[in-house]
């Protein structure tokens, strides 16, 4: 998954104004105690981060 697609999906689910705030502030144990930004910056693949976000935040199947 390309980062542009990842961020489009984040904006679609959380809204364009909140997606970056969520990605910057919400720490998830499933990402090794990292935020979305920290996980991506440490080398996690965007598709794997998106899967974690979907699981943790109960993203509906049609948005996955």
TrEMBL record:
It holds the Pfam family DUF3046. It comes from Streptomyces muensis. The lineage of its organism: Bacteria, Bacillati, Actinomycetota, Actinomycetes, Kitasatosporales. This is DUF3046 domain-containing protein.
